[in-house]
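User: Hey, my collaborator sent me this sequence without any context and asked if I could get a structure. I don't really work with proteins. Can you help?
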Amino acid sequence: MSKLLYTKEHEWIAIDGNEATVGITDFAQSELGDLVFVELPEVGADLSKEDDAVVVESVKAASDVYAPASGTVTAINDRLEGEPALVNAGAEGDGWLFKMTLSDPSELDDALSADDYKKFVEEQG
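Assistant: No problem. I've predicted the 3D structure and written it out in structure-token form, which is a compact way to encode the shape of the chain:
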């Protein structure tokens, strides 16, 4: 079973061994509004923690999604190229952005649990 963590930049990461699936949180997609475009990384791209990994564009604004940890992109959610609204419909499900192999899982030691993330969002106001 995968372990689900969150970042203060509103990404989620589901970890299964050294493999991880990354997306934006439901809170992030609701703040952005209806997504009209998603620019995904290339499969095989090496990302460092906090690198710009994805650009999501909504009717309100464009926003960067950061890599929550270092690693290599192993898959992208191709469906988003034609259906960016999948992120709005299921940000923490079918709207995942990319998968990666983690090069240093300890980089996620400062990531938040679901409860901690919920408290963080509530404190943001």
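In plain terms: The chain is about 20% helix and 35% strand. You can pass these tokens on to your collaborator as they are.
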